[in-house]
Amino acid sequence: MSGGGRHRRRIRIAVPVAAAGLAAAVAGALLMSSANAATALPTPTTKPSIAAPSVAELQKRVAGALAGDDTAGQAAKKSSLSAGTNTSSVDPKIIGGSETTISTAPWMAQLWYYDDKGTTDESDDLGFFCGGSVVSPTKILTAAHCVKGYNWYKYGAVVTGTAQLPTSDSSGNTDLHGGTVSLPLRQWNHPSYSSTTIDNDIAVITLDRPVTAKPIRMTTSGDTASYAAGTQATLYGWGRTSSTTQDISETLKTATLPINSDSTCTGAYGSEFIKGHMVCAGKPATGSDTGTTTACNGDSGGPLIVGGRIVGVVSWGVQDCVAEGAYSVFSKVSTYVGAAYPRVDDTNLSRDHKADLWVRNSSTKTGYEKDSTGTSFAARESLGDWDGVNVVLQTDLNRDGVQDFVVRQSGTGDVYWSHYVWASQSWSTDKIFSGWNTRTRIVAPGDVTGDYLPDLLSVDSGGTLWIYPGKGNGTFSSRVSVGTGWNQYNSLRGHGDFTGDGKTDLIARSKTGSYVYLYKGTGKSGSGAFSSRVKVRTWDGYNAFDAPGDVTGDGKADFLARTPGGTLYLYPGTGKATSEIFATRISVGTGFQQYDIFG
């Protein structure tokens, strides 16, 4: 549809041709003085900003993509619905849907990609579009075929907060219709994505700064009810609205599709439908637009939603989308949440995909940042004087993409949250708890309760473990008891998912026997927040531990342990919920006996 007389675009969009300043103080040592503090908190320091293009440049990328006619994720896969039926390319659109507003789907994102190749010949320009979903203020869930092989930081732009596609006039001015354009800072696609089979078709794009669009969550790894045949799912997108034209919808559309059984999908696509990795939805297409409701070109990367959570990501279908008997095919999110969620909760000091190390020298009280290279840590960088505190935790309580610090003041036991304020481009410190000097453990593991908002844990002097559910702004709901007996451990650490199910876990070491236990997270609160412990190691040769997150960058949470002699070992996570939770240890350096606090 032309949409209020605006120019009607012809654009082939984001489907595999197959079967189917940034002004972030990136590390910052952070804590500002407080009038309530008996001893001044550490003084903040910052690092140079990451070079970022102007809003005008991002809008230029959008305008270039608007004029493009290319397709993302080209592949050689072919599919057939029945013998003798050639369906040699995939086109994901919404045909048969209805227009909707951004208030009904505030998480919807437009992904625009434009590379003019730097030549005067326009024929080599590359421009295309994909859909996506805001799953955290700086994170966009989309399809791997929209991401793999493209440099989104250099050539991409993401628009959120509007149901309208942008328009450009003859002078090159771009109207975002109330939307916000953002820079894709980095990208991740599933490492096993295949452009031939369109398998493992899921990706996450990280924006350079948070957007105000309300996020939506992915479904959980254990979700089976959402995939029961006949379950009504909702699809959103800007894709083609007819099989007879390449025109896409200038206004967000939605449609309701029933989930189909695996046997139905296999009956339509044979071995090209990969059970467990894919889900198909919708009634069988009729062979024409009439009577067909389906995804099509332009919807790739967008969400299929059940019960307020994303259960599928638009992946592939048949050419022109309406071949008789065809169904839309989606990546099955319950299978991939364990791989994708670590990318949603991956904030670190250097803002790449690898968790970094924060340490404090015991004699000078100097704090240091040591950035991960994947298998070791780079040379340390001073972050200033960190005297007067006895706990330092790396986290991101407001999910703004810049790592925060939670610290406990030595004298008062008061706990402070130091965080970056985008509006003022400076650091601010807020007191979040008072008198925690008797707390034996404080942990910032990420999202324990399953609401995508980071939480805090603490163990009191009596051994009770408490969850403080985060609200995403540095404040917390009323604490909830997990249970007692937690003072039997001399170390309680965790940051992220050790078992590969997308839920936050804990690692504890006993005072007696030095046994190491895995407490697998359930995504719930209260006494059911963690499953029964599993013994995974006996570690009696270490005297300090740290769990900063995914050090190696493979999407699995890792662990660090220090010997009394000062050697620091990396235990790479395997993603298994058994005694094989860690791979063989790797030495990442010596001299670590000089540090008394690990973040």
Describe this structure as you would to a colleague.
With 599 residues, the protein is mostly beta strands. Helix content is 6%, strand content 31%. The protein is built from four helices and 37 strands.
Structure summary:
6% of the residues lie in helices and 31% in strands. It has 599 residues and is mostly beta strands. Strands 1, 11, 12, 13, 14, 15, 16 and 17 form an eight-stranded mixed sheet that branches.
Percent range for β-strand residues: 25-35%
Please tally the helical runs, counting DSSP H or I stretches of 4 or more residues: 4
Low-confidence stretches: 1-38, 75-93
Report Rg.
25 Å
Map the helices and strands.
Layout: H1 55-66, E1 98-99, E2 108-115, E3 126-136, E4 139-142, H2 152-155, E5 156-160, E6 167-168, E7 174-175, E8 180-182, E9 184-189, E10 203-207, E11 217-218, E12 232-237, E13 253-258, H3 262-269, E14 278-281, E15 303-306, E16 309-316, E17 328-332, H4 333-344, E18 357-361, E19 366-370, E20 381-385, E21 389-395, E22 404-409, E23 415-421, E24 426-433, E25 441-446, E26 455-459, E27 465-468, E28 480-483, E29 489-493, E30 506-510, E31 515-519, E32 534-538, E33 544-549, E34 558-562, E35 568-571, E36 586-587, E37 595-598
Parallel strand pairs: 11-16
Antiparallel strand pairs: 1-13, 2-3, 2-5, 3-4, 4-10, 5-8, 6-7, 9-10, 12-13, 12-15, 14-17, 15-16, 16-17, 18-19, 18-37, 19-20, 21-22, 22-23, 23-24, 25-26, 26-27, 27-28, 29-30, 30-31, 31-32, 33-34, 34-35, 35-36
Organism: Streptomyces sp. R41
GO molecular function: serine-type endopeptidase activity
Family: Belongs to the peptidase S1 family.
